[in-house]
Amino acid sequence: MRKEDYLSVIEELVYQVTGISELTPDTDFIRDLALNSLDVANLVCAFEDRFQVEIPVRDVWKLSQVRDVIDYMQKKEMHAHGL
Questions:
Q1: For every residue of the chain, which 3-state class applies, written as one string?
Q2: Range of the domain at 46
Q3: Can you give the residue ranges of the Carrier domain (predicted)?
């Protein structure tokens, strides 16, 4: 999946969970969107469901920006395909 495709899916999921619709790769979930820990947990669940991956707790707080989620998902996708 291309970065633009990931961004589009992430925008959709963030909107479903938070009602916020405008994101860029540099958007910070906590600083820019003022999400609380429950919002973050709900987003992580949405990411896991949509992308069919498990995100360990140790990785959750590394995903502070939209770009971090895109990069993380691309790495998971590459690993799943043996690349």
A1: CCHHHHHHHHHHHHHHHHCCCCCCCCCECCCCCCCCHHHHHHHHHHHHHHHCCCCCHHHHCCCCEHHHHHHHHHHHHHHHCCC
A2: 3-80
A3: 1-77
Looking up residue 12, the CATH number of its domain turns out to be 1.10.1200.10
Q: How many domains does the chain have?
A: 1
- Chain-centroid distance, C-alpha 55: 10
71, two tokens: 């990069």
Predicted TM-score (pTM) of the model is 0.89
Mind listing the pLDDT tens digit of every residue in the chain (83 residues)? Answer: 899 999 999 999 999 999 999 899 999 999 999 999 999 999 999 999 999 999 999 999 899 999 999 999 999 988 877 76
For residue 54 the two structure tokens come to: 């498990």
